[in-house]
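Our collaborator T.R. sent over the components below with a one-line note: 'Predict the complex.' Nothing else. No constraints on interfaces, no templates requested, no preferences about which chain binds where. So this is a plain run: every listed entity goes in together, and whatever single assembly comes back becomes the starting point for the next discussion.
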Amino acid sequence: MSVRVVARIRPLLEKELGKDVIVRADRVDDAKPLTVVKIPSPKNEAEEFSFAFNSVYDQSTSQEELFTAEVAPHIKALFQGLDVTIFAYGVTGTGKTHTMRGGLRLAERGVIPRLLSNVFRRGKKMMKDTNGETVVDVALSYYEIYNDKVFDLLEPPEKRQPAGLPLREKEGKTFVVGLSERPCDDLKDFERLYIEANNNRVTAATKLNAHSSRSHAILRVKVTQTSGDTIRESTASAIDLAGSEDNRRTDNGKERLVESAAINKSLFVLSQCVDAISRGDKRIPYRESKMTRILSLGQNNGITVMILNLAPIRSYHLDTLSSLNVSSRAKRIEVREIENEIVFKQAPRTNSGLLGANIARQPLRPLNNAHNVHTGTLAAAKAAEKAEKPDKPAKAFAVFADKKPSLSVRSIPAPTAANTSQPRQPLLPKPTTDSSIPAARPSKLARPTQISLLRPPQPSSLQPTQPQQPISISPSQIEAMVEKKVAEILAARAAAEAASNPQPPISPTLPPPADAEPTIPEEVARRLEALERRIESEAAARADDDGGRARAEGLRLLLQARQAKECGEDLVALGCYEKALGVFPGQAKLVGKIERLRAKLGMEPLVCEGTVKEKRRGGSAGVGDGDGEGEYIDGTEADVEDDEDGSVKVVRTPRKKNGGRTRVVVTEGEEEDVGEESPKAKRLLEIVNSRDLGRIRGLHGIGTKKAQDLVDHLTLKGEGEGGKVESLAQLRMLPGMGGRVVERAWEGLAVQAV
Ligand SMILES: Nc1ncnc2c1ncn2[C@@H]1O[C@H](COP(=O)(O)OP(=O)(O)OP(=O)(O)O)[C@@H](O)[C@H]1O
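Returned assembly:
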C-alpha cells in the first residue's frame, strides 16, 4: 500500500528548442541523488518552489535507467505474491505514454514492454530452477476508461457496448465485469497483443500533443504460479493516465472538450482522493470516477509507484505546479505508511530483494505476503488462521491515528489478507501539510528492524505528543515534551513492575519484553522514533521554505477550486477557496468569490477576521481545521487573484500592522463591515432600503416585478419588523430574493465600483 512517487522531467521536444526552461531537478546536497524539483513562483521569478520526491529523473534519463531504478526491483515482489501498480500522471504532452509504452526501438521501449520482458524472464528462470515443479503463467487484460466508461482493448471496437463494462467491488478489490483475459507466453505474443490493442485505444491530436491519449489505459499482467496444489496469483498493473489539460491551450473542439471534461474530472477526483487520504478524511471520494475506483490509490494492497511526468518549459507553468502539488501529496501517503509499517509480529517473508540502492521502501506488511494466495493453499490457510485470532498481535497500523498519544491500550485491527472480503479501511492520516519533505529522509529499510525493541529512545530528539499537530514547536519545547513522555513511560513501567504484572503496561497486544531491562515497549518506541524522524524532516523542510510551501499550498487550492468550478462542483470549489483564504487571509477577491459561491449555494455569508472562522453548512469543507493548512504566510500578505482566464496571480504587499489580516465582509450584526468589500454590501443595502423603485430596478438581475415586490414588502413592514434590511443574509431571506439574486446584484455593483 505504499506509494512511491518519482518525478521525470522530459527533454525539450524539437519544436520547443529555445523555449524557456523553468523546471529543474536538484538534490538536497551534493552527495545525494536527485530528489527535488524546483520551479519558480508564477509571480515572482526570484522565488522558487521546491517539491521533494522519492527520486527525480532529469532530461537525460533513459528509458532503461528509469525502469531499472523504479520498476525492476518490484518484479521479485510480484513473484512473491504482491500486486504492483505503476502509473504515470501528468499534464498532457509531458511524456506519460512515452514513459509507459515508449517507442518501438529497443532503447526507447517503455516501462510496459520492459516489465513484460522481465516477467517472462523471471518466470522461465523459476520454472527452470524448480525443474518444472513451479509453472508460471502470464495472462493479460487491457482496457481503457474513456469518458468514464470502461472498454476492453483486447476486443475489437465494434464489439463495444456504448455503456461500457461495469465495475464491481469484490473482496476489497475493484473488478471490471466481463473483461477478457489473454494468455501470453512470451514477449512476441505480448507485442502482438499490445500493438493490436493500442490501435483500439482512443487517441487524437491536440494542439499540445500530436498523439494525445484521450483515455486512461490500464494493462493488467496476471502472474499465476502453480506449484503442486498451491496457486499463487499476483497482478502488475501499468496505467497510462490521460493527461489533464487546459482547453484554452489545446484548442479542443467539441468532441475533444467532452473527452477533456471527463479526463479533467477524473483527475480532479484523483487529486481529491489524494488530498482526502493525506488529510486523513474518513470519506475518500473514490467512487466519483471509474478511474479512481480502479486505481484505488492507497487502498490497494501491494506496491504502488506513481511517476509524475513533467514538461520543462514555461508554457506548462501552472499545470506543472498543480501536478507537482498533487503528486507531492500522494507522496505523503507513502511517507506515513513507511512510518507505520515496521511491525514484525509474524514471521515475514522478507523483501530483501527490494533493497536496491534506489528503493526507499518499507518491508511490506507481513500479511501482505498472503495476498493473492488462493484459499486452500498453505499460505492462505495460515493467513486465515491468523485473521481468526484477534488476540494475536497484529500490525500496529494506526500508530499515528490515535489522537491521544497516551500509554493506553489500543485495539489494533486484525490484519487484512488480500482477496478476502475485508471492507476497505480508510487510510489514516499523516498529519503534515508539508509538500516538500526532504526526500533524503532515511529509508526505514536501512534501519535495523529490531532497534526499537531494544534501544531506549534518545530523549533529546524525540517528539512525544500530539502527532496530529503541525510542527510549530521550538526545540526546547520538544525536549521538555520528550522528557515528560519518557518519564511517563518509565513511570508506567515501574507501576506495572510494582504490580508484578509480567505484561508490559502499554499494549497487551505486544509480547512481553525479552528481558527485564527497562526498555520502552516496542510500539511506543517505534512511535517515538517515527515522530523523531518526522520532526527532523519537517523542521528541515520548514526551515527550508516555509512561506513558499504555504504559498504553493494556497496556489494549489486556488487551482483546485477553479477546476472544481469548471466541473460544476461548487461545494468543493467553495471548500478549496475557503482553505486558500486561510493561506491568503483577507484577500478581497478571494472573499468575493467565496461570498458569491456561498450565496449561490444558499449558505450564510462568510464571517471572517484574518483567517476564516469555520462556518460549515451543507457539508462544505471549511478552513481552520487545525491541519496547519490555514497558516498565515509569514512576513507578507499575499493578494491572490484567481482570474477567469485561468491564471492565478500572487501579489505581495507589505505586511500590515495588524499582522496583515484585513477584516472583511461581515454581516448579520456579528461585526460591522470594515473590509474592502463592505462598501459594496453597504451600497446594496442602502439602495434596497431607499425603497426607490428606480434605483432598485437598476440593480443587476432585479427586474420591475422583483423590485416592486421588494418595495411592497419593505413598505408593509415597520422598521423593527424587517422594514429595513440590515444584512445581505437578511436580504436573501426576503420573498423573491434568494442567494443567486443577491449575488448578481452584488456582482453588478462590484463591476460598477471598479
Ligand atoms: N523522455 C522523453 N524523451 C524523449 N521524448 C519524449 C520523452 N517524453 C516524452 N517525449 C515526447 O514528448 C511527446 C509527448 O509525450 P507523450 O505522448 O508520451 O505525452 P503524454 O503525457 O502521454 O500526453 P497525453 O496525455 O496527451 O497522452 C511525444 O512526442 C514523446 O515522444
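Summary for T.R.: The CA atoms of residues 71 and 493 lie 45 Å apart.
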